[in-house]
């Protein structure tokens, strides 16, 4: 199997995430690339779901503080929104849906979920997005404080990739 990135296909049309779920967004991206390139394509959509906010920001995680929000602005908005909320009510999870799509549209989806809670302030220098405030009670650190190798083994994306790999082995791909 040979892997390529979108950098290898600079003319692939941009895909706007307009779906109402992680699956719809990931499928739209994978299907667009697969149809354009004639090759199987892998795409994901992921986000942060906060229990106290009834699952928000969810599929709008990258745009929580506005359409052109930075990671820092999104983190600030989540902290402001949860100000005064006690730790036991700050449960959250990172969600990921990974889609492998053939050019004919046949596809498989794989999911991952990483449980944690939102910390009261950012900690750590690693990662991106909400990593500085996504606290892992069992580890006693935020994701931004984890070494990259640990994050790459534990994350919601890692969980979805394990399921993809298992499916590919079963299918002998």
Tags for this entry?
6-stranded antiparallel sheet, single chain, 173 residues, 23% strand, Maf protein, alpha+beta
List the helices and strands and how they pair.
Elements lengths: L21 H16 L3 E10 L6 E2 L12 H11 L9 E11 L5 E12 L15 E3 L4 E2 L5 H7 L1 H16 L2
Antiparallel strand pairs: 1-2, 1-3, 3-4, 4-5, 5-6
The string of secondary-structure elements, in order, is HEEHEEEEHH
So what's the overall shape? Answer: globular
The percent range for helix content is 25-40%
Number of helices: 4
Lateral arrangement of strands in the main beta sheet: 2-1-3-4-5-6
DSSP summary, beta strand count: 6
Label the CATH architecture: Alpha-Beta Complex
Strand fraction equals: 15-25%
Structural class: alpha+beta
Q: Your description of this structure?
A:
A hairpin with a 5-residue loop joins strand 3 and strand 4. The protein is an alpha+beta fold and 173 residues long. The chain is built from 4 helices and 6 strands. It has a single domain, classed as Maf protein. It has a 6-stranded antiparallel β-sheet. Helix 3 packs across helix 4.
